[in-house]
Amino acid sequence: MIEPIGNQYIVARPVYSANAFGEEHKKKQRHHKTFLDHLKVCCSCSTQKAKRIALSLFPIASWLPAYRIKEWLLSDIVSGISTGLVAVLQGLAFALLVTIPPSYGLYAAFFPVIIYFFLGTSKHISVGPFPVLSMMVGAVVVRLTPSESTAALELSNSSMSNDSSADEYKVMVAATVTILSGIIQLLMGVLQIGFVVIYLSESLISGFTTAAAVHVLVSQLKFMLQLNVPAHTDPFSIFKVLNSIFTQIEKTNIADLVTSLIILLIVFVVKEINQRYKAKLPVPIPIELIMTVIATGVSYGFDFKNRFEVAVVGEMKRGFQSPSAPDMQIFQETIGDSFGIAIVGFVVAFSVASVYSLKYDYPIDGNQELIALGLSNIFSGSFKGFAASTALSRSGVQESTGGKTQIAGLLSAIIVLIVIVSIGFLLEPLQKSVLAALALGNLKGMLMQFTEIRRLWQKDKYDCLIWIMTFIFAIVLGLGLGLAASVAFQLLTIVFRTQFPKCSTLANVGRSNVYKNKKDYSDMYEPEGVKIFRCPSPIYFANIHFFKQKLIDAVGFNPLRILRKRNKALKKIRKLQKKGLLQVTPKGIICTNDGFKDSDEELDNNQIEGLDQPINTTDLPFEIDWNADLPLNTMVPKISLHSLILDFSAVSFLDISSMRGLKTLLQEFIRINVDVYIVGSDGKLFGFFVLTITSGSWRTVKVDSLSKV
């Protein structure tokens, strides 16, 4: 019975043993599904199931019939046009990160949007090039592309130009990696194993994307300065690129540098205005479009290419490239890179989609997102595009300009289509340094993630360490190896947390009947002879020794040492009792012959295993008080502990190794007359454990969630 009195509760109920509680309150018989049961459900077929599968594979069939034309169409049109213009510029800019001609970035901005329109579950993200993915694909392209001297030697007898052939090979590598990453995403979606992304924490993603932004920044310096910087993909490559840049800094093209700095400054200022006054502006100022139009006009009007020898976009091929099959040799060499690209692409897209799904209250399906992104990348790679996910800035434009559904995305693809088939030639005079500046202008949000370090340090130092180490790994080892090392380090921190848990001794705070860590408060009350020990993690083979040592430190003595001391003293007392030299007095047991001596060495060396056995005093005509003085100054450590309470409410599992270690430890406490209680234990979790340590006169008694061994 529970009676509320003000803001207090008085609880009155019987004290149950485990058996008595089980007899009074019968458990329900529940049928737990087996693997065959799940297989039958999976293989069954019905009209409703077929309809549900069709709607899940083609989400457009769910939301398109409910589309509100009068309310949403105008907003989607405005959003689609704005997003399409941004997509064109980002496609051109991010193609430089892949180290392929800018025109191929338009394919990556077109095909994924079309596929996602039919298969995606998010209504607001804009699918297409993403700088981090572009950088990861570019790293693979650089690694697999022959060096300039090798390529020139191989192509000396070819009718094609060296640059053209090298570009075609780079495009083939990028497309093949994109197809392979799409296949991986598709398989993960079909097999319903999208859960693997849970191993990428927010701290890891933040640190990784920040490092990728630094890689993007360094990679664009050569376009802003127009320097011939050799590509590097091995560890420490970013430092080698910086060394190459600084050793030839005197060769900088001043026109490119000045243009890019002006563009970068204006873009940063206007983006800050967009951010601060987004509530007052009907639509964000399309600064990328404005600066592109101005820069293209100025470059064409003043003939920057010939007068200042700047690098420009060059020929923009009209129409689409014919689809091509991937290179199987490249497949074999890039499987690891493609897996990383697939995971990162999905994590970024799903994270952004989750934000909008919560904001506008509609569901998204992670496995369906994998299928949509996988098919998007397969189609994009087949038509010589590169890997797609979602750019945060582009999705922000689509949502902030009023986009309601993926019809806005479809209209943005139409804008890209117009540029591909009709007006792309107008961008041919555009400087590559302008595209590099536009790409850097979109990195502000990622670079500002450095501020996360302070917040994480205050909240959780382990997460802060994951962020820092992920950043260092990605910078030093490169994006591919850096991601793998970061995941391994993150999992290692989980092992470290459980291997060295923060065990604590609980005590009563101010006699309030609330028990907290005794080190955290000054007014603590600990019941005499009672010790409450809490373990906040699973107990398994890696931390059982740590747990035992912490428990021994908490109680202040080693139960095995006490047991051996008592058994040695018991042997000495038996010898004295047989010789009639003991006398029981009100003050304890005394020896009537002070000259009697015994050999401690003999007791130490003979029958050591016998000292670990339970203390048996049934053959003596008196009881021994181990906390009283013993005859002949026999030294046995005195202990005041009579009850040990183990709070296992946070222990989710025990393995066989930990059960054996825990069994031995608890046996030692019980043999020195210390009662052991296990609090908050799950019956299923500790059922086997109870069976392993219960023998003879030992029994298990359960008082609510309190188990006594």
TrEMBL record:
Domain of life: Eukaryota
CDD domains in UniProt: STAS_SulP_like_sulfate_transporter
Occurrences of domain STAS (ranges): 520-685
Keywords linked to the UniProt accession: Membrane, Transmembrane, Transmembrane helix
Membrane topology: Multi-pass membrane protein
InterPro entries referenced in this protein's UniProt entry, alphabetically: S04_transporter_CS, SLC26A/SulP_dom, SLC26A/SulP_fam, STAS_dom, STAS_dom_sf
UniProt KW Nucleotidyltransferase keyword: no
Transmembrane segments: 77-98, 104-120, 127-145, 169-188, 195-218, 252-270, 338-358, 370-387, 407-427, 465-496
Main subcellular location: membrane
UniProt entry tagged with the keyword Transmembrane: yes
Subcellular location per the Swiss-Prot or TrEMBL entry: Membrane
Protein name stated in the entry: STAS domain-containing protein
